[in-house]
Batch of 2 targets.
Target 1
Amino acid sequence: MRDLDSIVAALRQFVAERDWSQFHDPKNLAMLVASEAGELVAEYRWVRGDEADAHSRAREPRARIAAEVADVGIALLLLCDRIGLDLTEAIADKLAKNTARYPVEKSRGRADRPT
Amino acid sequence: MRDLDSIVAALRQFVAERDWSQFHDPKNLAMLVASEAGELVAEYRWVRGDEADAHSRAREPRARIAAEVADVGIALLLLCDRIGLDLTEAIADKLAKNTARYPVEKSRGRADRPT
Amino acid sequence: MRDLDSIVAALRQFVAERDWSQFHDPKNLAMLVASEAGELVAEYRWVRGDEADAHSRAREPRARIAAEVADVGIALLLLCDRIGLDLTEAIADKLAKNTARYPVEKSRGRADRPT
Amino acid sequence: MRDLDSIVAALRQFVAERDWSQFHDPKNLAMLVASEAGELVAEYRWVRGDEADAHSRAREPRARIAAEVADVGIALLLLCDRIGLDLTEAIADKLAKNTARYPVEKSRGRADRPT
């Protein structure tokens, strides 16, 4: 994948050129994440689970799904940039916590994910 | 930020060790994105917009917000990995479309974002 | 079902006793709807589509699902009450629009719902 | 407000005429609730909290907000009907639990809602 820092730099320029940072307080950006996540989930709501992989690779739905995934990613990076949070560091921290929280021997093959 | 590819590799290992990929069809992962986005928005629902920046930097809420942001990021990366989508490329594509869709002269300083 | 007006009256009293209406501007209540909807979707994210009906009737998940459904309903009614919107009238209006938008002969048995 | 039972009867007829119940398993309907909630939150994401009441009563945004509120309500009622849950009873049960969970003397005027 590309360098996230250059993506964030491009996002900053996009927002600055439009003077939109005045609307981008963290509360509003959290709402943006949620509304874009709603659009992503809409792409799958009538798709059967066992057809969701094929659906995700068919040309037309894939283009829409990629756009919705991107919108969630953009919203998340805008929020991280606004509050000075390093997304990859936050993910690494959370993954370490999850590794401790869901021991392999207890959670293997279980959807209920006992902690 | 860290290298996204190494983050994805760590996520893959986490999932493989727990044999959870059987639950991770794209539909379920889209639902995961939405439910984690719901938890993120919950962190801000009673916070005033003009206090949201300070709230995001205060120690206790910041730790919770970082964890929720990470959960959304993890869900999004799991979905991208499942469907073979390069998140950064999808974001770059969408940003190019948004740049054309929201001309600077029409959208500058406007929350209604005329296209 | 019970009378919605008496439910709304009970919600008003609950909020008034706690002096919470100061937090309940329509923006915050829309966020409440979204965060509760996220919790509802979380109840189904690892459940197979063809097992979702049975899951919804099994004792333990049903109690959780009922609580999440109620939380979404409460949030929606609080928002309607705040902005002076009659929920049942809004639904009747939307259903009339949907009936015109999705003609039976075009949409019958189709998940893609052509308009 | 109107009688919820008659609203539900109209929804049933709408779905039956289009043979859509095949797509309406509870998992898919939970996703519908979440995606519609995302559209509702989108109506408020760039609106200031202290302008959200006026925004909700201005003609154009109000029509859109009413439609989104209705969509969430329809999705919730479809889910309740599918799983045989009485929405008003579920709300009354939850409100009783919330009344016990948030004692007036501890929660009065507090956004953090200590339990």
Target 2
Amino acid sequence: MSWLDQVNFDADGLIPVVTQEHGTGKVLMVAWMNREALRLTNESNQAVYWSRSRNKLWRKGEESGHTQIVHEIRLDCDEDVILLNVKQVGGIACHTGRHNCFFKKLENEQWRTDQPVIKNPEDIYKPLA
Amino acid sequence: MSWLDQVNFDADGLIPVVTQEHGTGKVLMVAWMNREALRLTNESNQAVYWSRSRNKLWRKGEESGHTQIVHEIRLDCDEDVILLNVKQVGGIACHTGRHNCFFKKLENEQWRTDQPVIKNPEDIYKPLA
């Protein structure tokens, strides 16, 4: 049996993926993979997700250059969540230009942003000439 | 507007939650919350999830004693994933009796378990006398 057959994809053929930064242990983002994305992630050693909004494979960094080099792939007890340990190229995982996506912290029943924008998204996602 | 109104629950009224251990940065588990679970988690300072299998609120540790003391609650850029930073009471988050749920590591296209069982699940989940 293939390692991919042991993974429990949901009714839509997807599995949630927690991506954690190697070394710092920071949780960078949560995204989704289908079987093909997971296969390609392991094969290419770079994170490939499934974009639910665009409904297609999403090679992380394909536009921004902020690719993720895979250090480790883990599966949970129920075999329905993937934990990816990566090196984040450029030090920016979030499309807002921040290090990671979890920059809103609950304080006194308010969500407060406590991470700086490292690079302006307009400078990250330049339209092709 | 309440902080709860800013959270994007999915069509089923749920949001995925990544639970990370304070101090070690280890990802302990991924579970789900509904609005009530999130409200109670903040109010009680202990993780309360929504059990999709039992279809009810799940006060983590209610049977095992392995509660999670909330250190921090974060929300991601799309406001559709929660990151919980917790102190794991008993040092066991997984129902298999392991420290965390991500004990299967992909090695040469095989999932290999690399974490010990700290306590036998039969000794954790004792039927009420």
